[in-house]
Amino acid sequence: MKNYDLVIVGGGPAGLAAAVSARDHGIDSILIIERDKELGGILNQCIHNGFGLHTFKEELTGPEYASRFIEQVEERGIEYKLNTMVMDIAASDASSANGTVTKTVTAMNREDGMFEIQAKSVILAMGCRERSRGALNIPGYRPAGIFSAGTAQRLVNMEGYMPGREVVILGSGDIGLIMARRMTLEGAKVKVVAELMPYSGGLKRNIVQCLDDFGIPLKLSHTVVDIEGKNRVEAVTIAEVGPDRKPIPGTEERYTCDTLLLSCGLIPENELSRSAGIDINPVTSGPVVNDSLETSVDGIFACGNVLHVHDLVDYVSQEATAAGKNAAAYITNGAAKDAKSVEIFPVDGVRYTVPKYIRPAEMDDTLTVRFRVDAVYKNCSIATYFDDTLISRRKRPVMAPGEMEQVILDKKKLGEFPDLSKITIRIEESV
Amino acid sequence: MSTRELTCIGCPLGCALTVTMEGDTVTAVTGNTCPRGDAYARKEVTNPTRIVTSTVRVKGGVFPMANVKTAADIPKDKIFACVEALKDITVNAPVKIGDVILPNVAGTGVDIVAARNVAAN
Amino acid sequence: MYDVAIIGAGVIGSAIARELSRFDASICVIEREEDVCCGTSKANSAIIHAGFDATPGSLKARLNVRGNEMMDQLAKDLDIPFKRNGSLVVCTKDQDRAGLDILLEKGKKNGVPDLRILERDELMRLEPNLSDDVTCALYAPTGGIVCPFHMTMAFAENAFTNGVSFFLNTKVTSISKTADGYELAAIHTDTEESETFKAKVVINAAGVHSDEFNNMVSSRRLHITARKGEYCLLDKEAGTHVSHTVFQLPSKMGKGVLVSPTVHGNLLVGPTAVDVSDKEAVNTTQEGLDSLGVTASLSVKNVPMRQVITSFAGLRAHEDGGDFVIGEVPDAKGFINAAGIESPGLSSAPAIGEMVAGIVKELLNLSAKSDFIATRKGILRPETLSMEERNQLIKEHPEYGNIICRCEMITEGEIMDAIHRPLGARSLDGVKRRTRAGMGRCQAGFCSPRTMEILEREIPMSMFDITKNGVGGEIVIGTNKEI
Known about the structure:
The structure holds three protein chains of three kinds.
Chain A: E1 2-9, H1 13-24, E2 30-33, E3 49-51, H2 53-56, E4 60-61, H3 62-75, E5 79-81, E6 85-95, E7 101-109, E8 113-124, E9 128-130, H4 133-136, E10 146-148, H5 149-159, E11 161-162, E12 166-170, H6 174-185, E13 189-195, H7 204-211, E14 218-220, E15 222-228, E16 235-240, E17 253-256, E18 259-262, E19 266-268, H8 271-275, E20 300-302, H9 313-333, E21 342-347, E22 357-358, E23 366-371, E24 377-386, E25 389-399, E26 405-410, H10 411-415, E27 422-429
Chain B: E1 2-7, E2 16-22, E3 25-30, H1 35-46, E4 49-50, E5 53-59, E6 65-70, E7 74-75, H2 79-85, E8 90-92, E9 100-102, E10 112-114
Parallel strand pairs in B: 5-8
Antiparallel strand pairs in B: 1-2, 2-3, 4-7, 5-6, 6-10, 9-10
Chain C: E1 2-7, H1 11-20, E2 27-30, E3 47-48, H2 59-78, E4 82-83, E5 87-92, H3 98-110, E6 116-119, H4 120-126, E7 134-140, E8 144-146, H5 148-161, E9 165-167, E10 170-178, E11 181-188, E12 194-204, H6 210-217, E13 224-234, E14 245-248, E15 258-261, E16 267-270, E17 274-276, H7 286-296, E18 308-319, E19 325-329, E20 332-339, H8 345-364, H9 387-396, E21 403-405, E22 410-411, H10 412-420, H11 428-435, H12 448-458, E23 478-479
Parallel strand pairs in C: 1-2, 1-12, 2-9, 5-14, 12-20
Antiparallel strand pairs in C: 3-8, 4-8, 5-7, 6-7, 10-11, 11-12, 13-16, 13-17, 13-18, 15-16, 19-20, 21-22
Helix pairs in contact in C: 1-5, 1-8, 2-8, 10-11, 10-12
């Protein structure tokens, strides 16, 4: 059995940045395990530009953004295995002198077969998957021509195959918007984008540059109510939905088309985390973590879209950098002693926070807490309370569920509240 | 006097901009929260430009496709001409990020460059 | 000239083909779809009923009980995933429990073993998620769950191995009587070429269309109504919500729906029952899907309907007479019906195969083959092996080390097996039904481009000819900038 200090599950943007950071914080023995045939993860099929404005101060395509981190991994000589699937992660009872608990990672590939690796620490960076037609329970036939937007993106951008000529898109998440433009530029006709919610889940710039530029209508508060076609999609019917998100009879519109693309949300891919016994937050579908991005299992950290679905890859890289640093500290210094932990309560419009728990004594000088809101809020504020004391109130002209928000917690300030029992983050009307 | 409503794309904030114009001249931009919004609005109503990304076929590479982009913004009305110009292009591996795939695409003065590395088979 | 031509490669046609392949005879199966198991056989409750429901003395009663009996040996011989998980028909407090006694009596008359009525206390120990209103239930320990795809394929593959010819993508358009048998005019739906098949005996196992074929040769008309049943399949995380197949006691509100684990570990809820005029209408409906959760909650509480991973609809072939129609047609000698096979059709399939083969044996005076191969191996599932065995397998066949479907953890080796075995997969759905690749929670979002690459390489075939489910169901329609 091979031993590594750190095993990183996933070689996408999160895994790459975590690896670089862990190495830069003194960990030599690192293995990245990637299931695909190259590093870079989903970025490799995201050929649109707009990645890296925060990180590199320029607009890169997905593969370019990935390549910057791949180069850093290569420069540092960090080991990685491609075409390798992690099958299982288990924490053992054995612990080392400094209190780190040994984990066994079981993986498989063509060359090595099924093999086990022992690691002091594991970083989960498996990313997310798309919600399927089945999970949406859309009625109708089940013909060819129904794709998740990401599957279509892979076919078009990486393999050069067009999934259809006339397209209806359900869901205005970013991948759906981006694919509306991609399909249009490659010769297809995108007839409409329907969105169940009264607002788009995608970024503004994508609505402008992917739909408006090409005159593609966006129908908010609409959903697909029927799919026709026995072998291949022949038509899709959409209808307006009421406040209960149920279709309103009489509002049906039928679009002849051969393709339905679904961009209806992403789900962190946590099968491995669950089987490792890690607590999952039902709101994010990602692991519950503390300020060091450590899950409920000692020495297993999480970052990127497996933790919670991000809007910008820059934030994934930032989060993963923190996870890499924190895993390095765990490997070097051992498990943190039982520090007092304070829960962050998301209320009044705040759906969740990552992290959910902070340890004022252990945390960095500042800590970025990220979250999403549950609806569109205009001219509201993000308010933070330590127990009942208002600590900060930051005005935001507009907040939408499609974009992540953040609050920065200050360790010094927390020090002023030695008996703190809870932190609350809420959306408030601006005064 | 006329007005145009735009959504700023400078950052995820997506400010709702109102541009007031006298003929072809912008007289006011409101709704922006930063100078980038002002600059975007003025440009978008007078000379809108876009980065265009697409793919070309690769021969002899470990992947069949390489994605490409315009090295700089091109006029918005040249988007389709730009993609059309890529239709029959096949490049030989290896492809390196930054390789010029097609110079001066659609007469824009802007090159199409590779945005992905593809090693030779 | 074939001795026997069987129309339809569903579970009935395939079971008959397998039983007939024991004998020295030239046999063909003609199927309009691109694969076996494409009609009612692929979209049903996946249940091997105990046999208490049918009217004593009916074909349904006799063949169900016999079919159920045969399943243990068949599952062993043909490597069919099958489990006797036991079934419960639950009675709620506003229902008359006399209904259960009637079922119990019928079951006894039909020869169903070990039936008994359980009271709530014992019931809740067996099945803690039963609804609070459940008072008692009829327990049938011989009830079981099966994979209907594998059951059909097992019959078909074994028949193929024993010399039966299969013509897929071949649609019979008319049947005419000749001096020594029948002539079947058919069209190959993939090439659009015509072909005429001649056979001494024709077996009609055409599911919802079996009335049409009967009526081509007989003045004794059959009339089949397609009765649609919609289902929701839930994630494996919900698969242990119940361990038995939970039926509802029929009431004036309807037959109710079942909640059952599947043999692969998912949870199945369904079916609805609505007569439809279109015999191809396998679409689900908003009303149907919405109703399932509500109806299911009458018998089982907290069914996690949010964990639905897919929904589907199947059509039962309901004949006006209400029973299976099996046997030689009196005014069309040599034409044998296996028609009107609705529930419990899957459960009865092995017995129908036996019965029809017996009729044909008599008619043609067939003799048993000496070299009949009675067993068939299913697709090797590496997850059933020890780590050493698995590594030995990967050493010899590295494709078993490459995971393609990450939801169900299906390897490239299994997909290649599915393609290269007898009557192998030619489409994404074909691969899916054989291996479960694409049947998990992401519903093929991740694996379908990869499975397409494997089909392209292994068959080999053009990417443009790869379909989801046969001609007309192509996945990609051109290349970038060229459509």
